[in-house]
Amino acid sequence: MERIVVAALGDSITAGSPLWDPDPAVRETIVAPDERSQWQYWAAGRDPRLRFRNHGVYGERTDEIAARLDPAARGAGVLVVQGGINDVVQGVPVEEAARNLAATVERGRALGLAVALADVLPWDAGDARSAAGIARLNELIHALADGLRVTLLPFHDTLVDPAAPARMAPGLGADGDHPSVEGHRLLGERAFRLPPPFESPR
Known about the structure:
two-stranded antiparallel ribbon, 16% strand
């Protein structure tokens, strides 16, 4: 069976917060670590070809994520780029965050990788300012994916509460910031798909 190595590059959403982290030292601080608290765990369960490498780092902005691309991508065939919420939280202009994401996508493609780009989840603990920032950044991410012709992973709409669009649906958030295990499951089983040429029917 063909093996597809996927480098998942992002912030705490990629890392698997709140119940998982790829860094063993960080994981030791989690009371009851659960590897199911990663969307990659669930995506791999649906497609046995996939071998994920988790390069998520808690709290990182898009510029910090971009700086880790080359070593993370080594030996991979697919790159998943995820980030942006920490830029919004820290007051970085969303246009700057979008430029960082674009540069990361373009660098990944220059390295010969098939690239997928995730949009930003609702932030349950946020306020009206952050909700507006997330909405605007997602507009830019969608335009970026379309313009660069890369696969868009609809993380936001997979977990959003239709009755409260600035929040995750009941049961899909864990701590005000991150998905629950069920939320990660939906991201892996519903939102994730492989970019061409690896994409298989869902």
